[in-house]
Amino acid sequence: MRKNSNKNKRINGEVMKVISEAIRYSKDPRISPMTSVMDVEVAPDLKTCKVWVTVMGNDEDRERTLEGLKSAAGYVRSTLAKELNMRYTPEIRFIMDDSIEYAIDMSKKIDEIAAKDNEARRARGEENED
User: Is the dihedral of CA 10, 79, 34, 56 positive or negative?
Assistant: First the structure.
């Protein structure tokens, strides 16, 4: 199976949906309710699955949630086996996705630079071109 085949995309989507639901209804208190599954990549041989998650909160919340997810991987895998009829039930590996935090940080930096630029223009007496 090619890595980006339609079948693999469909499997990734179904696995993502089931894992998201399993995490949402998990009873582990370490898993933050602000946890989102950002992406899922099931290997072409269907034996492994990487799950990228993001957690809104501080670093402690992220670490605690990732620890809870890793300990709940067996539960999530059994839920996946019950919900989907697949040849193999993939072994699940959770990975923290920091792309949203990175994007927010970059946006703040851009806003700061734009504000400094506007301030410098006003100091020189120039009109704002925006």
Answer: negative
Instruction: Find the distance separating the first CA and the last CA of the chain, reported in whole Å.
Output: 51
CB 4 within 8 A of CB 43: no
Q: Residues 6 or more apart from 118 whose CB is under 8 A from it?
A: 128, 130
Can you tell me the distance from the alpha carbon of 4 to that of 84, in angstroms, rounded to the nearest whole number?
Answer: 20
* Relative orientation angle of helices 59-71 and 73-83, to the nearest 10 degrees: 60
**42: confidence class by pLDDT, cuts 50, 70, 90:** very high
The pLDDT of residue 124 is: 86
pTM: 0.75
